[in-house]
Amino acid sequence: MTSTQIEKDNKIGLVNLGVTLWVSFLFAAIATMLFFATFDPIDIAQVATFPFELDRISGYSIGFILFWALLIINSCIINWLSAQNTSSMTGSGCPQDKE
Question: What pTM was computed for the model?
């Protein structure tokens, strides 16, 4: 591999990372809004099986971070599956025949 090819691969990797983080961030914000429009964090803390006190802001923050982590994992799996699918494609974009 030449140094320009390595730089190009690094740039593509950084772009994929940026897209993954940004898309998961936006959808975590939407998921947080939809979830907490239905459920109150204080009510969730009261019905928890282990005792802890939680105010609304902390509940929203914890919920957002959990949604973001879940969606980052989801995006990484999608990127990995997409890369696996792309490696078995020909230049025309059609799957290779294995005859």
Answer: 0.75
